[in-house]
Amino acid sequence: MYLADRSAPAPEGAKTAPDRGPVRAPAVASTVLALGAVSMITDISSEMVTAVLPLYLIAGLGLSPLGFGALDGVYNGVSALVQLTGGHLADRVRNHKLIAGIGYGLSALCKPLLLFAHSLGPISVILTLERTGKGLRTAPRDALISLSTPPELQGRAFGVHRAMDTTGALLGPLAAFLILSLTVDGYDAVFGVSACVAVLGVVVLMLFVPSGVDPVPAPPAASAKDTPAKAVAAKATPAKATAATARDADRPAPVRLRDALGLLRLPRLRNLAICAVLLGLTTVSDAFVYLLLQRRTGIGDQWFPLMPLGTAAVFLLLAVPAGALADRIGRRTVFLTGHALLLAGYALLLWAPAWPALPFLVLALHGMFYAATDGVLPAAVAATVPGELRATGMALVGTGQALARFGCSLAFGAAWTLWGTGPALAAAAAGLLCCAAVAGFVLRPSAPQDTR
Fold first, then answer.
1. Angstrom distance (rounded) from CA 324 to CA 348
2. Diameter of the chain by CA atoms?
3. Predicted pLDDT of residue 197
């Protein structure tokens, strides 16, 4: 993985080192790398719990698929609702790191509470609070990434962040598997270690993520208004008055709720939000995919925590190339291709023979789906939203998508309970095919206007 863009020409106004020519700006900002490290550590903690949670709830506590679908939906739905609040607060207080830090801290505080919860009610409350923390931090974090990156490199920046985040998703299930294999009270040990790792993530955030975002350098615009007369007037102005005027000019106006809701009047953002919701309504949650794969292939319970490793490994390998490809050929193409790959995974689960290679094929397609969509969507959103409302715009799309996936979890759990796994997944696949076709039409490039 390379982090410097050696092919891009030096920007106008770039600093020059003696005898070495222009100093090129890094293709991935330090803010992105620091946030990637925080996400990687936090994801190790979260995925340790997520990897064992379906088995713990269904096999350990005897929860039905319908009950797990409801809990999984709430788990993601709460995050979605709070994400909108977190995005608006970050834009309003102009401190994305503060809101993100509160979210990371709340999630870290919830992890040790799992040690004392051994029934569905307390576990539901704890998971709801943990998802509240995730909802608070997601939009401010993504806004920090986009605001510190030039528009033409947004896909690559999000790809690098998602690759680092996925490294945590890769290590978390592996750690859970090792802990379950080596300890007697395996689930409690997983929850305890997860809590310690979560605290480390908060510490890294506070120490290494800058409070402000360095503006992306832009070429200075020459203006005929910048005349010597202005310079003389500036010298004639008292220093204190000049400083006060500069502070007033630089201080952005507060973001109102009306401004945030007004973002949906932007056609491109509205189309992205509609398509994210439609596709989310037919995206079966990861936990259900792993449970379906286990039942389809007969994988033993002791190997269940390793299933997310397959998805995470492919995601890790392809996140940066997929983001760079989206910057080059268009984010719409890569985004829709990702959903086509997910549809192929559903087809394998439905109709493929029980080959030994089936788990590897399904998990590879699952990972390719995330590589082509998870970082590409926020990069597309960043290109449509002004900087002062960046976190709010990302939260609007993310909230719609997550609420749609909440509905999908409820519907799929009910369909599994009533019809069985095959008809439930076939209905989801048919819905995904229809929604992808609609998204391809809605997100089509606009035709150039005839100016003759």
1. 28
2. 83
3. 94
